[in-house]
């Protein structure tokens, strides 16, 4: 009997080991790059506060000078690892200096301070979803209503517009 890749990916190894792999993930020095490194833990963990802090060389990620390059990872959230599966986890981390100061790319620290303020906690958040799309002309792959090779005027008349002269491509 041959094993399929899906059989291997879904293989239950919990009978063989309690250990898990935790992939620590953080934002790198550019502010848009994602970094990560993995460690083995002796048992499954469900609470980020139970995870150990970890460190890395911030001079290699553009987040610290070479002479003082240590950056500390503070685990903030845990998610099941869809790549390794099993009890393995992805750990979303914040980045701090050894003195406990958040790095400039650590935007969550300031957001946490704002969202934990009593005035903000007392509020009930609202969320709105918005759908935006552009219809393209069939032959030239250019937005409907735009001058060919150019751009339309300011969006004012078109934003949330109704009517054939505002919502181009919509027949009313």
UniProtKB/TrEMBL annotation:
Gene Ontology biological process terms in this record: glutamine biosynthetic process
GO CC field: cytoplasm
Subcellular compartments: Cytoplasm
One MF annotation (Gene Ontology) recorded for this entry: glutamine synthetase activity
Swiss-Prot/TrEMBL keywords: Cytoplasm
InterPro entries: Gln_synt_N, Gln_synt_N_sf, Gln_synth/guanido_kin_cat_dom, Gln_synth_N_conserv_site, Glutamine_Synthetase
Family as reported in the entry's similarity comment: Belongs to the glutamine synthetase family.
Subunit description: Homooctamer.
Protein name, entry field: Glutamate--ammonia ligase
Species assigned in the record: Prunus yedoensis var. nudiflora
């Amino acid at each position: 009997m041959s094993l399929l890749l899906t059989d291997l990916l879904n293989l239950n190894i919990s009978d063989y080991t309690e250990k898990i792999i935790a992939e620590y993930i953080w934002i790198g020095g550019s502010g848009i790059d994602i970094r990560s490194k993995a460690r083995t833990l002796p048992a499954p963990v469900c609470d980020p506060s139970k995870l150990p802090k970890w460190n890395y060389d911030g001079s290699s990620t553009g987040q610290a000078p070479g002479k003082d390059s240590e950056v500390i990872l503070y685990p903030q959230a845990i998610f099941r690892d869809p790549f390794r599966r099993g009890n393995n986890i992805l750990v979303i981390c914040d980045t701090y200096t050894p003195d406990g100061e958040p790095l400039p790319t650590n935007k969550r620290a300031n957001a946490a301070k704002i969202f934990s303020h009593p005035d903000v906690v007392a509020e009930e958040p609202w969320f709105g979803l918005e759908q935006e799309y552009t219809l393209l002309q069939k032959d030239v792959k250019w937005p409907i209503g735009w001058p060919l090779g150019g751009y339309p005027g300011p969006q004012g008349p078109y934003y949330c517009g109704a009517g054939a002269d505002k919502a181009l491509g919509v027949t009313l």
